[in-house]
Amino acid sequence: MIIDNEKQQIRELFANDQKYAQNEKKIQNDFIVSMQVAKYELKNRDDPLLIQAGLTEQKQSVFIIQGKFQTENNIRSITYYMISQLQNQKNQEFFIIYINTELKTYLNLSKFYSIFKEFPCIYFENLQKLFILHGNIFIKSWFWFQNSIQIKVLKQKTIYLDKVAQLLNYQFFKKQQFEKMPAYCKDSSYQQFQQAFNGNHQKIVQQSTNQLYNLELDQYEFTNKGIPLIIDLCVTKLLQNPQNIQLEGIFRLCSAQTQDRQFESFLIQKQYSEILDFDNIIVIANFIKRVLDKLKYSVVPYQFYNQIISIKQYFVQETQALIQQFPILNRNLFTLIILLLQLVAQNSDINKMTSSNLSIVFGISLSRPLEYEQANIQEQYQKIKIINQFIQFIIDNASEIFPNQIINDFLLETGEEQIEQQ
């Protein structure tokens, strides 16, 4: 619980901030209006992105927010919901658990922070902690560029967690809060969570998605072309109809969790005919990204990461020589993905996914360091930009870097051939 001295310090910070002091009256008046609206705004109770997870033993509120803001309505409904829960008691203390769902941007988090910028000082005093689950390098570096007093206070109260199970270190977090968390947030620490809550230290059956993710590349089932079968199926489906890769925002749009799970279930159960008939292209595109992101080891082997970072100018011949040093399975998969991205970029006038956009989406999916140096976030951010530039260069020059190679060289000829092989 925050002691009075800490609250007083926050109060003084706000009082001494010129910008906040100038706008304090407007903030207070606008908030009064929002409080009135919140009393009658019923839609916020059904917003799928917010879970009000009850009260702690000290009667503090706990909010769990899924970071998939799609529209202004999401932001507004969450704002009204939080107001409606907190307004009854002026000094109601609360925790927020923000579940990050983005790998390569901070846009949703910035939208989330826009909620707080409309709150008066008292709410910043009463916020106990803001936990950010699965925070990426962009989110952590975003704070460096924010100067408002509201964001500075939020930064002081923010704790980053890599695993859901780390919430067990905080006494306020109870079983009922865990049960309300969406399934996709229950990462590899899910077993540890269940054991802690159930007192059951027996071996728990692994989640089915573990058969698809967090594997070494050579642990996947391969086609005779040297490509993981699940990737082959997905790419084949994307290329089945030219309109698929012309879909605006492909590889960038979010997909529904229910359809993601259904698609994963087809793969786990080897219902390959269902995959080839699956009609949600966004789900398939996102699955390709997810597999790359969750490979145990980077597609571009770690030993080449620093070499890429140090390149001052890109040339086709030198890039070819570098890629040729990759292990054969890594080289095959890397080449397939680049040729796919080249085809997508060639349709950027329709799908809006230029080589630059695609490199931002796939850069660290294809090439990441063995570990991130948290001590120097700004430097890591610059390295990611360099990786993205390198991937963009390869996409733009794919025809020269991979001469006489087409994407079909890496794919089985037909869907039927894929199924019959099994």
Give a written overview of the molecule.
- 30% of the residues are buried.
- The longest helix has 23 residues, at 18-40.
- Strand 2, helix 3 (72-86) and strand 3 form a beta-alpha-beta unit.
- This protein has helices spanning 4-16, 18-40, 72-86, 107-116, 121-126, 137-142, 149-156, 175-179, 190-198, 229-239, 257-268, 272-277, 281-293, 305-309, 316-324, 328-345, 348-351, 355-366, 377-396, 398-401, 415-421; strands at 50-55, 61-67, 94-100, 127-133, 158-161.
- Residues 42-47, 199-210 and 415-422 have low confidence and may be disordered.
- It is an alpha/beta fold and 422 residues long.
- It folds into 2 domains: 4-198, Phosphatidylinositol Transfer Protein Sec14p (3-Layer(aba) Sandwich); 211-421, Orthogonal Bundle (Phosphatidylinositol 3-kinase, Chain A), CATH 1.10.555.
- The chain is built from 21 helices and 5 strands.
- The chain starts with a helix and ends with a helix.
- Helix 2 (18-40) crosses helix 3 (72-86), helix 10 (229-239) runs antiparallel to helix 13 (281-293) and helix 13 (281-293) packs across helix 18.
- A 5-stranded mixed beta sheet has the order 1-2-3-4-5.
Number of domains: 2
The outline comes out as elongated
Counted beta strands: 5
State the CATH superfamily name of the largest domain.
Answer: Rho GTPase activation protein
Can you give the helix content as a percent range? 40-55%
The largest β sheet comes out as: 5 strands, mixed
Number of helices: 21
β-strand percent reads: 5-15%
Strands ordered across the widest β-sheet: 1-2-3-4-5
Q: Which CATH class of the largest domain applies here? A: Mainly Alpha
Q: Alpha-carbon distance between the termini?
A: 58 Å
CATH architecture annotation name of the largest domain: Orthogonal Bundle
Cα Rg: 24 Å
CATH topology of the largest domain: Phosphatidylinositol 3-kinase, Chain A
Low-confidence stretches: 42-47, 199-210, 415-422
Structural class: alpha/beta
What is the N-to-C succession of helices and strands? Answer: HHEEHEHHEHHEHHHHHHHHHHHHHH
